Fold:
Amino acid sequence: MPPKSPTKAPFWKTKTLAELTPKEWESLCDGCARCCLNKYEDEDTKEIRYTDVACKLLDTQSCRCSDYLNRTEKVPDCVVLTREILPEMNCLPPTCGYRLVHEGKDLYDWHPLISGDKSSVHAAGISVRGRVVSESGMTEAQIEARLVRWPMSKRARRPRA
Structure:
């Protein structure tokens, strides 16, 4: 029997963020949609406070943007995550693939790149599916009244070794 060939390390462990192809970069998104929630930053403490109110473009069942290519035209304050601004993004949840790779950590076992299943983020209870409402038709006061703590939770299975 021939010797077992070594398994090639995944791209997020062998490349820097600057070396990733656009497809690899996009695949780091686990589809949790926690970045699509309305949030507020305390000016004094810089603490990010989340709501359970999602962007009007978020499909709350699939946890995907309903108009990803045109999102910044329809939602001017939508942040386009880039390699350059990633270090400053203190609002990304602790389980975010972009954040984990930037910090030199491994992805969680439910991440679609590990599990091979785009629905694993939902099965693990990490996504916003079934936990949010759309901001459509809401006033700023109504949105701000819906502050929650769960989006920054690390509640998840441990990352793979």
About this structure: The radius of gyration is 17 Å. Helices lie at 11-14, 22-27, 71-74, 97-102, 112-115, 120-123, 140-144. Residues 157-161 have pLDDT under 50 and may be disordered.
